């Protein structure tokens, strides 16, 4: 997530002689990434990327404290100007009433106050600061809520107090089918479980922490407002926001899990601004509902551990200065640091000593820690052929260069896409949808689904390398890595897919694969030695699929290349037309021919017509020129074996 802020606004909390470029450099080296600095009138705008775990940096105050610490560590004079925002002590004889009810499972903290205000245009400096931050200026009341969000880092909200029927807010879960209209005029039907506020009559008046509603929004005639700050379950906010596509800056910030301690600061700062910019007057007591307050924690940290983890010796006073500058309370007793994490900083991943050491290391500067290669006494050679990832990449690259496209499909499928008895399926106990209930046992249906959804392409060649899942008694499901592919085009050929698999295996130095016809469907079983590694299937005239067992493939794969000398003696080539029953597989005939002599260098199918198959045979010796009578003896041996084993004969 990104935040834009003006340099002049930052310097209200940061006193330093450093220029914007230097501030950006030091921030980028230690915490957030300042992506660019842009000129803005007579000022500068920082465009800053903040990581998800540093939500406190989505504020002027958080960035100012971070910049002061980073600059000081670099030897540049810098001071964080800390301001205390304290809630006023209000005692009123008579005031407007407000009833708030909520479920503690949904709400961390609520702070609120009723004020009389005057709506008018915001001062120039407020409008400039907001607009430079990418926030549109509307009026002084709305602008103050955005100003506080940017300065303190906690979103705030205002209701028109007089438009809240019964002056009641009940914060609860939404019910399925409830409807609401947001302040931008859009209507939504809720699916249930969303955090909403209703007015005691069942009417939704706020989609909490996400967006206000049209029936409670502040208008130009508003006289009294309810300044309202809530801190609620961030996971529910995220779910609601993503489901309905409402991605306001408020929810993007709230869903990161803001520390509830900041609500009182935001409320105090907001009251101050309403009094200054909107002639605001407090007309109710301060409401602060905080059922489970954050507590400060103490972490013990030794210098020995700091030095061991960071890898260099850092003086203990340097560590104390860094942590103190970041807002921790630090004391030292006999070389042990007692670090108190204030309540306002809890929840920022400050739980164990290593969290604090990370803070010390990043402010000290990773660039100041020397690069040191780890020492070792012995090392073993890395063998590529022992690494599964090497073979995965090898196979993927080969298929890519042969025109295939790799796809990633969900391992969870519906009953329609599950292949096999549904009782054998690995079933998910808490499926995301009805289409993702079962773990697949083959990749082919998923690939065919991709084909179905891309019918506008005449030729599609896809492959996927992924796991399938099978039941494994009482244990976790058995996972097997499979390589599957599909060719979809007019007149798709089994022989084309067979050739691809043969070449794929040959690329892995696997030369002894055979194809045996399937008895129950059109296609063939791919066999290496006695291992059945997969199948090729013809689904129709335009679709041929294959699925291979990856673990069995790499069992035989090797990177070793065997040099075969080229013979200096010429080959003798002949074609034999063999008549054999249709039930006899061509591969069996070829194997029988090839096994009759070491002088047979190559056997291939040249032609097939009815019951006649013509084989192209190359004879060659590495020691001498072959004579016709020597080839004739081999030929007779071939015919004898074919006759005895397959009742085959030579044509003619």
List the topology elements.
Elements: E1 2-6, H1 7-10, E2 14-16, H2 20-30, E3 33-40, E4 43-49, H3 60-73, E5 78-80, E6 99-102, E7 107-116, H4 124-132, H5 140-152, E8 157-160, E9 168-173, E10 179-181, E11 187-189, E12 195-198, E13 204-207, E14 211-212, E15 224-232, H6 234-244, H7 249-254, H8 262-277, E16 281-282, E17 287-289, E18 297-302, H9 303-310, H10 316-325, E19 329-333, E20 336-341, H11 353-364, H12 388-401, E21 405-406, E22 412-413, E23 426-427, E24 438-439, H13 444-452, E25 460-470, E26 478-488, H14 494-507, E27 513-517, E28 523-528, E29 531-540, E30 543-549, H15 550-556, E31 572-579, H16 586-594, E32 600-609, E33 612-619, H17 628-646, E34 649-650
Helix pairs in contact: 2-3, 4-5, 5-8
Report on the structure:
- This protein has 652 residues and is α+β, with helices and mostly antiparallel strands.
- The protein folds into five domains: 2-80, Phenylalanyl-tRNA Synthetase, Chain B, domain 1, CATH 3.30.56; 99-289, Phenylalanyl-tRNA Synthetase, Chain B, domain 3; 297-368, 2-Layer Sandwich (Phenylalanyl-tRNA Synthetase, Chain B, domain 1), CATH 3.30.56; 384-556, BirA Bifunctional Protein, domain 2 (2-Layer Sandwich); 572-650, Ferrodoxin-fold anticodon-binding domain (Alpha-Beta Plaits, 2-Layer Sandwich), CATH 3.30.70.
- It has 17 helices and 34 strands.
- The longest helix is centred in the C-terminal third of the chain and has 19 residues, at 628-646.
- The model has no long low-confidence stretch (mean pLDDT 91).
């Amino acid at each position: 997530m990104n935040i834009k802020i003006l340099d002049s606004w930052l310097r209200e909390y940061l006193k330093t002689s450093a220029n914007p470029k230097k501030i950006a450099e030091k921030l980028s080296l230690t915490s957030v990434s300042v992506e660019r600095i842009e000129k803005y009138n007579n000022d500068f705008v920082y465009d800053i990327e903040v990581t998800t775990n540093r939500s406190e940096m989505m504020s002027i105050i958080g960035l100012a404290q971070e910049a002061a610490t980073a600059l000081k560590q670099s030897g540049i004079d810098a001071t964080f100007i800390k301001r205390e925002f304290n809630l006023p002590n209000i005692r009123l004889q008579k005031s407007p009433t407000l009833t708030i009810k909520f479920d503690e499972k949904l709400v961390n903290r609520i702070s609120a106050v009723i004020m009389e205000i005057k709506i008018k245009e915001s001062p120039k400096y407020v409008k400039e600061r907001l607009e430079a931050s990418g926030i549109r200026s509307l009026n002084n009341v709305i602008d103050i809520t955005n100003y506080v969000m940017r300065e303190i880092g906690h979103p705030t909200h205002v209701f028109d107090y007089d438009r809240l029927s019964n002056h009641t807010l009940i914060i609860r879960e939404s019910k399925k089918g409830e409807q609401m209209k947001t302040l931008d005029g859009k209507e939504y039907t809720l699916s249930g479980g969303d955090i909403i506020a209703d007015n005691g009559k069942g009417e939704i008046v706020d989609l909490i922490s996400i967006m206000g509603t049209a029936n409670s929004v502040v208008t130009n005639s508003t006289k009294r407002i309810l300044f309202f700050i809530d801190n609620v379950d961030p996971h529910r906010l995220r779910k609601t926001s993503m489901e309905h596509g409402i991605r306001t800056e408020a929810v993007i910030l709230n869903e990161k899990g803001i520390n509830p301690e900041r609500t009182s600061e935001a409320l105090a700062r907001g009251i101050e601004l309403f009094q200054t910019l909107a002639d605001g007057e407090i007309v109710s007591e301060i409401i602060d509902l905080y059922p489970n307050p954050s507590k400060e924690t103490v972490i013990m940290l030794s210098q020995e551990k700091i030095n061991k983890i960071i890898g260099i010796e850092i003086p203990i006073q340097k560590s104390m200065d860094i942590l103190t500058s970041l807002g921790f309370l630090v004391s030292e007793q006999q070389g042990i640091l007692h670090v108190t994490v204030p309540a306002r900083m809890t929840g920022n991943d400050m739980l164990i000593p290593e969290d604090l050491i990370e803070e010390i290391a990043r402010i000290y500067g990773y660039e100041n820690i020397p690069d040191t290669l780890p020492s070792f006494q012995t090392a073993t050679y890395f063998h590529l052929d022992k690494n599964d990832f090497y073979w995965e990449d090898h196979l993927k690259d080969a298929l890519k260069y042969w025109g295939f496209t790799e796809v990633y499909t969900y391992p969870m499928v519906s009953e329609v896409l599950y292949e096999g008895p549904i009782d054998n399926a690995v079933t998910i106990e808490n499926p995301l949808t009805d289409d993702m209930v079962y773990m697949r046992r083959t990749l082919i249906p998923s690939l065919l689904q991709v084909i179905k959804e891309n019918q506008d392409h005449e030729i599609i060649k896809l492959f996927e390398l992924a796991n399938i899942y099978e039941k494994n008694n009482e244990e976790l499901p058995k996972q097997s890595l499979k390589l599957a592919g599909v060719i979809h085009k007019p007149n798709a050929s089994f022989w084309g897919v067979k050739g691809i698999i043969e070449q794929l295996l040959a690329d892995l130095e696997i030369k002894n694969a055979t194809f045996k016809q399937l008895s129950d469907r059109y296609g063939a079983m791919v066999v290496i030695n006695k291992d059945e590694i997969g199948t090729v299937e013809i689904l129709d005239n335009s679709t041929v699929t294959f699925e291979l067992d990856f673990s069995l493939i790499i069992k035989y794969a090797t990177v070793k290349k065997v040099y075969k000398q080229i013979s200096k003696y010429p080959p003798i080539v002949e074609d034999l037309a063999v008549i054999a029953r249709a039930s006899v597989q061509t591969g069996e005939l070829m194997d029988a021919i090839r096994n009759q002599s070491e002088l047979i260098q190559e056997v291939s199918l040249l032609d097939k017509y009815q019951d006649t198959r013509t084989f192209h045979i190359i004879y060659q010796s590495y020691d001498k020129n072959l004579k016709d009578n020597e080839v004739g003896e081999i030929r007779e041996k071939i015919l004898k074996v074919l006759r005895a084993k397959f009742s085959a004969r030579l044509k003619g």
